[in-house]
Amino acid sequence: MFAGFLAQTDHEIGRLIEQVRSTPEGDNTLIILVASDNGPSAEGSVTGTLNNMMTQNGIPDTVENQLPEIDEIGCPAHENHYPVGWAWAGSSPFQWMKRVPSHFGGTRNDMIVSWPSRISDTVGIRSQFHHVVDIAPTILEAVGVPEPKVVNGAEQTPTTGVCMENSFADASAPGTRHTQYFETGGHRALYHDGWVVASFHGAS
User: From which domain of life does this come (predicted)?
Assistant: First the structure.
């Protein structure tokens, strides 16, 4: 299922990019793709389930209950969910998964930036640490538009992001985001210059 989804996503994004690049300003169009959402889901519990609504409502499922339906798992007959072990594997090499922001398994995502007229390194990898809040400041600076202070008469709260454009031309450029805080449901993490301190609260 994941492979099929990724194959279709790759194909459709490719179609979109081909269309953009075919326009007169295609090579001067900045495209930023965040290629994930929030990490693999662990809601299937340790055993997995034939009915995801069961686990979301605190009703456990069992392997014995699922085995007779094994050939139907993944088909329209069930709203099944894989066991938590698969979520952990899907986050590899990072720890934890969706809804656990204290470890990168639940927060780290791929991002692809394409801008042919400004980025010549078409297959390069960047390792600078950034957050999704850095995308808007990057776009504004790239196109030379200042961050608006007032929109339709309403004062705007300044963004907390930083521009990451310096890494476009130089893979070894120093990162511009030094510190980032994460929190959901009491799980917390603080990143600072390559170090992470994390707090995960397990089930009581």
Answer: Bacteria
Instruction: Please tell me the distance from the alpha carbon of residue 10 to that of residue 14, in angstroms, as a whole number.
Output: 6
Judge if pTM exceeds 0.85: no
Q: Which pair of tokens denotes residue 184? A: 């959901």
> Tens of pLDDT along 89-116?
888 888 888 888 778 887 888 899 999 9
Residue 180 token pair = 């980032």
**How far from 159 is each of 44, 93, 118, 132, 168, CA to CA, in Å?**
37, 31, 25, 11, 21
Buried b (16+ CB within 10 A) or exposed e, 26-43: eeeebeeeeeeeebbbbb
- Furthest CA-CA distance within the chain: 63
Q: Which amino acid is at 179?
A: T
